[in-house]
């Protein structure tokens, strides 16, 4: 794939990366991550700009997931049943049930971390819409996950080449767990600080002199 990328203009590469990642995020099984890794390696050879590549990939991911969310909200279960008959490997009862369990347990964090896992990368948008997740909540998780995924994949591919692609393929579930753990820890720290600030404000209000 890298040899093929070397033969086409950089503008076309950006367009193809955004299109493939966007379509994958809508719910179509396509090799978005493989293409991004190959493009990141091509960037290390000066074929494309790595920063612009990361921006384009993140934009495609965010827009594609939002379209997938709208599709899931509109057609939902009926669409998943139809896809399950056509592509049981990706949309059959077992993979969909696994994704649904993750969504029920983790909510928006499944959207964020799911960007690092092939199955959830395809299902996140449609499932979030189908399960009725509020769009604002979905968009925040979708945007942060898309930026984190596109930035890290592009940077690692640019720095380490094809080895990075093999790492993501083998350890994407580990990346998901680390992403969820980090997000949970950050949320707990913020919650503690808010509770502490509320307690201090309450104490100050109680001890304030009255006139």
UniProtKB/TrEMBL annotation:
It holds the Pfam family VTT_dom. The keyword Nuclease does not apply. This is DedA family protein. The lineage of its organism: Bacteria, Bacillati, Actinomycetota, Actinomycetes, Pseudonocardiales. It comes from the Bacteria. Belongs to the DedA family. Residues 30-154 form the VTT domain. Keywords: Cell membrane, Membrane, Transmembrane, Transmembrane helix. Coiled coil: none annotated. It is a multi-pass membrane protein. The chain crosses the membrane at residues 12-31, 51-71, 139-161, 167-187. It is found in: Cell membrane.
């Amino acid at each position: 794939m890298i040899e093929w990328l070397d033969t086409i203009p950089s503008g076309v590469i950006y367009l193809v990366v955004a299109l493939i990642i966007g379509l994958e995020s809508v719910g179509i099984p396509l090799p978005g991550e493989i293409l991004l890794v190959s493009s990141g390696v091509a960037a290390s050879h000066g074929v494309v700009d790595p920063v612009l590549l990361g921006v384009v990939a993140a934009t495609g991911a965010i827009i594609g997931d939002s379209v997938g969310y709208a599709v899931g909200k509109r057609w939902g279960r009926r669409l998943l049943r139809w896809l399950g008959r056509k592509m049981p490997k990706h949309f059959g009862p077992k993979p969909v049930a696994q994704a649904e369990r993750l969504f029920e347990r983790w909510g928006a964090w499944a959207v964020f971390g799911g960007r690092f896992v092939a199955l959830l990368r395809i299902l996140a948008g449609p499932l979030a819409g189908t399960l009725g997740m509020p769009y604002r909540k979905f968009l925040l998780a979708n945007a942060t996950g898309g930026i984190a995924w596109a930035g890290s994949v592009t940077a690692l591919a640019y720095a380490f080449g094809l080895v990075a692609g093999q790492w993501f393929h083998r350890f994407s579930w580990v990346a998901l767990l680390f992403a969820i753990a980090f997000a949970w820890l950050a949320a707990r720290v913020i919650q503690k600080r808010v509770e502490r600030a509320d307690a201090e404000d309450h104490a100050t209000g109680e001890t304030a002199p009255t006139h």
